[in-house]
Amino acid sequence: MNDWKTSPGWKTSQERVLSQRQAEGWMFLIEAARDMRTTGAIAPSGKALARTLTGPLRAQPSRPLAVLEAGAGTGAITRALIPHLSPGSHLDIVEPNPRFTARLDHLVATHPHLAGHAGKATVHQTCVERLDTTQRYDVIVSGLPLTNFPPQQVERIMSCFMDLLHPGGTLAYYAYLGTRRARTLTASRAAQRRHATVDEIMTGYQRAYATGRWTVWANLPPAHVWHLQRPTDEKADRSAPCDSEARR
User: Fold this and answer.
1) With 0-12 CB in 10 A as exposed, 13-18 as middle and 19+ as buried, what is 96?
2) pLDDT score of 163
């Protein structure tokens, strides 16, 4: 009896996936070498991290959702998001790196779950603070390396995220474990102060809006995933979702 796992078609498919992952890994390393501050990692996000980040979508499988992904990189999280887009949902993908956006455009154009659904996912080559939209989102998934950014930029990004959410909407983001200790050992005093200030900003948002935190050990490096929810009693200002200064 032939084993379907030994068939040429199965091997070809498996090898294609492995080749894609290997290419993404190398691309991530190259971009990290170019600018570690904005890439923020040495490898694409793993499956366990992607599953935890997509939890808010899986919790609402039957209704159309407006979804935003910020800092999509090579698309590791994007590929996990797309299969969970219910009929009528739309995904906006924001990524400033032009080499990453070219890969994301290809992903959107070729993903089997998007076949016949033109416009269901859109790639924007920009920063989230500069995203020109009046859209409000049910779910925002962030892959941005916030601890690498200046505190003022982190405050703008987080304020923008909360403004872009519908009341009751959820922001899912992650932070790598051990970064504070690593910076204490290797960074300058100025960098340590910046990192501590960013930690204070994020702690404030966590205390005000957090609905859950999970530790994902099966990732390189391990990470905490946070879910923050905009209060349902807040009114959404559709005229100016983000800091106008950030768009200039």
Assistant:
1) middle
2) 96
Rounded Cα distance between 34 and 191, Å, is 19
The residues spanned by each domain of the chain are: 4-247
- According to DSSP, the residues that pair with 175 across neighbouring strands are 224
Does domain 4-247 sit in CATH 3.90.1150.10? no
Cβ atoms of 50 and 76 within 8 Å: the answer is yes
Q: Which residues of the chain have pLDDT under 50?
A: 1-19, 21-43, 244, 247-248
Contact criterion met (CB below 8 Å) for 49 and 20: no
User: Which pLDDT does position 154 carry in this prediction?
Assistant: 97
pLDDT digits (tens, 9 = 90+) for 79-121: 999 999 999 999 999 999 999 999 999 999 999 999 988 889 9
The pLDDT value given to residue 107: 95
What the block records as the tokens of 219 is 């990732």
